[in-house]
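Handout, section B. The chain below has 205 residues.
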Amino acid sequence: MDLGEVIRRRRDQLGMSQAELAKLANVDARQVRRYEAGEQQPLFSVAVAIAAALRIPVADLAGMPTHRVKLSGEWWASWQTFRNGVEKVATQKVEMQQEGELVRVSTLTHGLSDEDGGYHWSGELRLWDNEILMGWYASTEGAVRDKGTMYFVLHPHGQRMSGRWVGLSNDGKIMTGWGSMAKEHDVAEEVIAQLDQEHGGVEVR
C-alpha cells in the first residue's frame, strides 16, 4: 500500500476523522486530504507526527513490509492457577488489539466461577522479534486484587503461544503457573497439558 492508503485505512480503524488526525499531527486538514489522495508526500517530520498520531511505526506508514506477525482478534487464554492450594485450569476468551509491537489484551469471559477464583482482567504485552511476548496483567474487578507479569514464546506460525505468569493471587503474593494462548479453545488447554507433562507442575509457594 502507498502512504495515502495506509493513512486512510489506519485512520478508519481508529475511528478518526481527517480533522482529528490533522489536529493531533499539527497539520492543516487540507494537507491530510492531499496525503490520502496521493497528491502530496509529507516531510519526514510531518510523517513522524502522523505516525505517532496513528500509533504506528514510521516504517508501517511508509508501507514498508515489517513481517510482523498479526495477533489482533479473539483468542483463548488458558492458565494453571490455584485456589486454596488446589490446582485449577482457567480458560478464558480474550480479545487482542495489536498496535505495532504493543498488544492490548482483555478478557471476554471469566473461565472459572467466582467461587473458584474466576475474574476479568486486562493487560499489555510487548512483541519482541516476532518471537517473545512480555507484559503485565491486572484484575478489572474492584474486589479482586490479582495482578502480575506474563511471558510467552510465540509459535512460528503465530497461532499459539506458551509461557507462564507470576503474580499476586488469592493464594499468595508470589504465585506462578503455566500459561498459554491460542486461536482455538482446545489448543490452549492442550498447550498447558503439554507444558505440565514436559516440565512438571509448578509448586505452590
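Note. Strands lie at 73-83, 86-99, 102-107, 121-128, 132-139, 147-154, 160-169, 172-182. Compare this with the example in section A.
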